[in-house]
Amino acid sequence: MKLKKLVALALTLALTATVAIGCGSSSTNNSGGDKSANTTSKKLVLGFSQIGAESGWRTAETNSIKEIPNLDSNVELKFSDAQQKQENQIKALRSFIAQKVDVIALAPVVETGWDTVFKEAKDAKIPIILVDRGVKVSDDSLYSTFIGSDFIAEGKSAGKILTDKFGKDAKLNIVELQGTVGASAANDRQKGFADYIKDYPGYKVIKSQSGDFSRAKGKEVMEAFLKSEGKNIQAVYAHNDDMAMGAIQAIEEYGLKPGVDVAIVSIDGIKDAFQAVADGKSTGVVECNPLLGPQILQAAKDLAAGKTVDKWIKSNEGVFVGDQAKKELPNRKY
Ligand code: GYE
């Protein structure tokens, strides 16, 4: 009897030790203290749910985030690609919670529908960093911080490129290529632009449709706009550069000169857009910085260490028109 008990005890101890070793790389963040300061401590596990690969901008962001473990060898990155589907992002978040990651980072494809899964993360005491797009949730304490741009300001800057070029009294029919339906980047870029041109009565958005932030869709929608409006279009406002690149192709195929017959403004600042401005095919580009890896790393380390971080960590951005774009071209990293 005694021997049996001893064997059972030994077995239990061995099992506990195995489980403890097995869980080594995915510690929870409840212990406090700055783990990153000590190289012998367990790794900080960061789960990132990416939207997909719809644009050059997003590829640049993915590359920047995949660099995180190279910036800090104490961080392990779990990367998940949602292929544009919110349901896949929710699944990824649930899997991160089950794996007890220390911090979750999420680029939310759309603004709404996050409450339940965010509450699950909160109950598991896993902080959430929103990356590049925002959310609308019932309680803002469900996420820790948003790292990204001011999309309303970007929309206004895009409008200003047009009013600077054409002047206050011009009459301009504008077509708008919207981003993904329900995305904060689309909603706010539309709002910022619309608010800005309100003060310019001759500036009218005559058509507005989603091109899903992609080159192929942007081209398709622009073809349809040209079919119905033809030479009635004086300007294109695209919520991202890829859709503007698609629009440029459509305009050329239609037999008009982009940048000359039809002005083009867009947001992001990918190399192709800078090249188009330098070539005179685009009027101007508003920069939106995708190289967020270093800021995400810092926020993740701070949160895992129990520190509070700013609710909105803004990225620095510029506006590039004409020669400015030519000068900047050799420096573009994406
Ligand atoms: O502008 C676009 C992309 O969310 C800010 O998403 C991001 C946007 C970016 O695919 O190109």
From TrEMBL:
> What InterPro entries is this protein classified in?
Peripla_BP_I (IPR028082), SBP_2_dom (IPR025997)
Q: Where does this protein reside within or beyond the cell?
A: Cell envelope
Q: Which GO terms describe its molecular function?
A: carbohydrate binding
Task: Check the record and name the CDD domains matching this protein.
Answer: PBP1_galactofuranose_YtfQ-like
Does the keyword section mention Transmembrane helix? no
Q: Which UniProt keywords apply?
A: Signal
Highest taxon of the lineage? Bacteria
Q: Which residues form the signal peptide?
A: 1-22
Protein's name according to its UniProt entry: ABC transporter periplasmic-binding protein YtfQ
- Write down the species: Clostridium fungisolvens
